[in-house]
Give the backbone structure.
Amino acid sequence: MMVRVLIIEDEHLIRWSLRQKFEARGYQVAESETGAAGLAALEEEQFDLLMLDYKLPDMTGLDVLGKIREKDKDIVVIMMTAFSSIESAVDAMKLGAYDYVTKPFDMDQLLRTTGKALETTKLRREVRELRRHMQQTFGFDRIIGDSPLMAELYGLLDRVAMSSSSTLFLRGESGTGKDLFARIIHYNSDRAGRPFMNITCTALSETLLESELFGHEKGAFTDAKSAKRGLFELSDGGTIFLDEVGDMPLNLQAKLLRFLEERTFRRVGGTTEISVDVRLIAATNRDIERAIEEGAFRGDLMYRLNVIPIDLPPVRERGNDIKLLAQYFVDQFAKDFKKPVTDITKGAYDKLFDYAWPGNVRELRNVMERAVLLCDKDAIGPEDIMIGRAGYASPANPATFVLPADGINIHELENDLLRQALARAGNNKTQAAKLLRLSRDAFRYRLEKLGLL
Ligand SMILES: Nc1ncnc2c1ncn2[C@@H]1O[C@H](COP(=O)(O)OP(=O)(O)OP(=O)(O)O)[C@@H](O)[C@H]1O
Ligand SMILES: [Mg+2]
């Protein structure tokens, strides 16, 4: 990349010697003699590095830093200061300067410092670019649906995304969009610039889950060869999405509750209280009230999580949204697969509206994906819509699978299901096992048995 450096410094000789060094490295250099001129230059052009003198004719370097900060520039600043005013350099660091160099310069050291600073600029820009991309990807407009239940949700979402300290609890059947909503809320809150971390409580053993969440000290357990920070520390300032919190072991529920009450925690095997500013978004597709009755979930934790409950409606209660969603997925997959499909026939819609969608939006998405693949006309017909076959247990249809009149080869069926689950989970065995309501071990066992491993 072409590196652009701005030097704000009133002493001609210093500007000159820096310019020599920087230009020898191929950097492009601009100079300003005063704070005001420097700020104006920063308005005009994008720089990668700012060399900022502490004592300027019209203001101090700290004033300049303060002004840059107001504008939230991600430029990296190195303060130049006389050795006698080293305290002000420390102040500058507090105001966000990257580093400082003292006059007279040790040129080797100065070039090392600027080299590192430029690395930082590059990373910051990349992070910003990625964030911008995520914000686009997870805009509110990603949520399809204008049924009354969804309209109600939008109002709520708008308010909760911004009140960014509150704990949220997303409840809804499988495939209703809990994952999607959690991300959208994060990327539209003032935490968007900080990490979004995601953990599924079912995927890990109790010990591992605890250490993933809270971190551990060296030697806390056999495998803990070194200390490790957990998600709570890593996502400081950001959001943790705690998926399937209904499956969290009771022991850990107590620890989570303590965190929610005190906002501090200890690493596994640690004694220090660590406090972080993390927003928690929990989600579950279990009937949590029933889990409480059965003693599998703590009532007091539910109460804490439930500060703002967000209930995601199942597709079968979303009326006309089925139409919007179906059309949305057709457009999307037609584009992905480069197929000239644009419409959905009335017959196909009848089929979509007749079905109970136990797998909700995810299932609808899969059905539309297959429909687009199967369709060889410009409109999807009922014959392209393959639903209600094996797979989902549906409240409307308790027999998930109807045995055909002439029977079926159960080995072929199992083989077929395992393959489909793997394909749908993008070869992720844990996810695939989940689709079949199997433990990972049971899933692997079956794969092995059928020679699929
Ligand atoms: N309202 C919506 N508009 C558009 N797409 C949606 C909507 N709701 C869900 N989706 C899509 O449906 C799929 C499933 O959603 P998601 O993974 O968020 O569900 P979930 O509630 O987390 O399910 P599970 O409980 O199984 O984890 C995703 O591809 C998601 O992008
Ligand atoms: Mg999910």
Q: What stands out?
A: The two ends are 46 Å apart (CA to CA). The pocket of adenosine-5'-triphosphate (ligand 1) is lined by residues 143-145, 172, 174-180, 285, 361-362, 365 (CB under 6 Å). Confidence is low (pLDDT under 50) at residues 390-399. The chain has four domains: 4-134, 139-313, 316-400, 403-453.
